[in-house]
Specification:
The chain has about 160 residues and is mainly alpha-helical. About 75% of the residues lie in helices and about 5% in strands. A two-stranded antiparallel sheet has the order 1-2. Helix 1 packs antiparallel against helix 4 and helix 2 runs antiparallel to helix 5. It is elongated.
Length: about 160
């Protein structure tokens, strides 16, 4: 149970960190690199599956990916870009912080409920898959939206 508590505190800390990073990022122009790099950095976490204690069954992988993809819909809906001058910025969304907190609460409750049924390593692997299944579709959608706006800004710049 100590591992569950520690990982829950870690998840709350990460949620607070992500919320502040998101607010700070909204003050600076977006770039394709800033959108693409987080899932690439997060992908290194897959190395945990080298160790047997983190491995999960195929059905659990599908379940965690499905839940992650469903959660990503909320993040996609609240991540919009706007053009200011000739720069593209991520719009601030008041709903984003509430959605992030809501997703965190759901994850914490699920972790507490599932911790009695799954080994802590297996549960950690499932939640990493869930998070990766959430961030990848979200960032792909952000990249596509950013790229579309970037092309529009560049085509308007060339017309002037």
């Amino acid at each position: 149970m100590n591992y569950v508590l520690a990982s829950t505190v870690g998840a709350v800390g990460m949620a607070i960190f992500v919320t502040f990073m998101r607010m700070k990022a909204a003050k600076k122009p977006a770039s394709a690199k800033k959108i693409i790099l987080p899932p690439i950095f997060m992908s290194t976490g897959a190395l945990m599956f080298i160790f047997p204690m983190f491995r999960v069954d195929f059905l659990q992988i599908i379940e965690a990916l499905t839940v992650g993809m469903l959660f990503s819909i909320l993040l996609i809906k609240t991540s919009k870009f706007e053009v200011r001058g000739r720069e593209i910025f991520l719009k601030r969304s008041k709903a984003f912080a509430f959605i992030l907190i809501g997703l965190l609460i759901v994850r914490v409750i699920a972790k507490l409920v599932l911790s009695s049924s799954f080994d802590v390593g297996e549960l950690g692997g499932m939640f990493w898959i869930l998070a990766f299944g959430m961030i990848v579709p979200w960032r792909v959608a952000m990249y596509l939206q950013f790229n579309k706006l970037h092309n529009e800004v560049n085509s308007n710049k060339n017309m002037n």
